[in-house]
Amino acid sequence: MDILIKFSNAFWNEDVWLPPNITWKDIEPGSREDIVYADYRHLLWPIPISFIIIVLRIAVENYWIMPVGRSLGIKSTKAKAPIPNKTLEITYSKMSKLNHKTIVNLTKQLDLTERQIERWWRRRKAQDKPTTLKKFCENVWRCMYYTYSFIFGIIVMWDKSWLWDIKQCWYSYPHQSIHNDVWWYYMISMSFYWSLTFSQFLDNKRKDFWQMFIHHVLTLVLISLSWMCNLHRVGSLVLIVHDFADILLEAAKFLKYANLQKACDIVFGLFTISWIVTRLGLFPRIIYSSTVEAPQILPMYPVYYIFNSLLIMLLVLHFIWTYMILQVVVQTIKAGQMEGDVRSSSDEVSDSSENRDKPVLQNGSGTPLKENNKSSPSRLTSKSNNIQQD
Predict the structure, then answer these.
(1) Per-residue pLDDT tens over the stretch 193-211
(2) Any idea what the Cα angle at residue 278 is, between residues 339 and 143, rounded to 5°?
(3) How far is CA 242 from CA 278, 283, 387, in A?
(4) Which of 31, 43, 316, 352 has the most CB atoms around it within 10 Å of its CB?
């Protein structure tokens, strides 16, 4: 027990977490009548709220979005299931990719050719992919949330001084009250990311499962960090800046699944513009304030540098994603329309996978077979694999 107490005291060292000459008691809820400080215990509230969001999502998707999707003719059937084979099923559960050595070993165990094994593998893999209707429902739901979150954020922040003057984030810090509407904005935002984290284990497992899981966890850590250190002002600015572009991204996705190609192309173009304006315009302005203006107003401390470093790392990711987005735009213009899945290549589903995916290996050799590749020069899927909402 003494070891745990010592570790806790060392971890929550005030010299690390707070500005000089500030203690945890100074910003403890109720320590001052004129200021309402953020309470770290309130970080538990988003967890039960996230389950309410999950239930709401299931109800909205099943009883509203899914019927709309079916009325638009969106397919809800999966690819043809492979013939049951216990040995191949065990192998499939142990490895995600099929290599030639494994194929050769399987041909020795089973009375199957390499081509038959590859065909079975493709069909089995297609079974784990979500249907087009499922992806449509997911994107509509996220578009609805981001639309709500952005509008709610604007309403909450409109009369806040730090929305119009970022320097207000640093004046009088850390003695800044948490407004009731900002409290709800934070709690609902965290609840949504908790719901995404939990629902990953309920949805079809995607190829980018762990990448997105880490993304959601890091987002929750960043939001929680800003809450505990009473950095909710700059935290609320980061949240609102990131919501708008996500609305258009999710809209472009579900329009693609609904076969509304022209609308999809227009919305994706608007998304690209909004992404550059918000992620490479407004967000760097926040980082400039936290990097240049904040040190001129208040004394620095270790956790501040951690928080600011995470924001800078996020900006670097934005530049990488922007490069990928612009590649998509250029290839879309060349191809004449946006093709593929705007989320991830791992999500692409085709009911004619047997006709599309030709065997690569000849029986008993590693020599590639001749392929008839006359597909479009642009595949949005392969280029936007890492374009995700933050």
Answers:
(1) 999 999 888 776 666 677 7
(2) 55
(3) 7, 8, 13
(4) 43
